[in-house]
Amino acid sequence: MYPLCGMVQIDLKPCIYVRAFLFSQQVTFDLYSYNKAETIKPISTMKKSILLAALFAGLSATPAMAEGKPYVSGSVALTIPGDVEYSNADLSKFKTGEALSLALGYNFKPVRTEIAVGYQLNAFDKEYLAAYNETNDYAWDINGNNLKNFNLKALTALANCYYDIQSKSDVMPYVMGGMGIANLDSGDGWVNDTGFAWQLGAGVGIKASEKVTVDIGYRYLKTNGLKDVDGEKVNWHSQSVLAGIRYDF
Hints:
By secondary structure, the chain is mainly beta.
């Protein structure tokens, strides 16, 4: 175990350690695996994302398990997509879409932890491309096969942690954050890759009964480390306004 001084180091056996250097503008994670018979090897992006999600979930579940109560939740959302960051350019425009999410978690009051699976879809705005073609003499046929199925589908698996701000009323505000993995699929073969994803959010829980809570919230989702079929970097983000139901057992 190492001192917490500007960085966090966790030394486990057989020696998997995590170093998180915190800067004002970014957070950089380095993960390595080691044993006596081998030299140090970087862990793949997929394994890195899974390890980070597991670490996040484990650290957030510090309260005694005996005090927690399990819950399930589901939500639907309206998603506002950002531009796709493609190499040195941005690819726009995508239409407002929809998202679904299901989660299984524990409520420790005031902390909640959960594992959530989500799916969202945003179609490409072909009218925007038609106007771009006309203005810039750009020869990309919007009726061709290359755009016939072009959209963005994101499948996510995230470990989330919530903090419920306790109140005496039936309305309880919260803040949350999460990390895990996301698969981004453009539908036309351009991008179909899995990488690291994180999200931040806030909202309110409205008590409908002793066991049922209505959730109204906002989420910001960001992907990193994705690549297209040619190996070019692709990143993406979206914002969502959601409504959901949580059932406490």
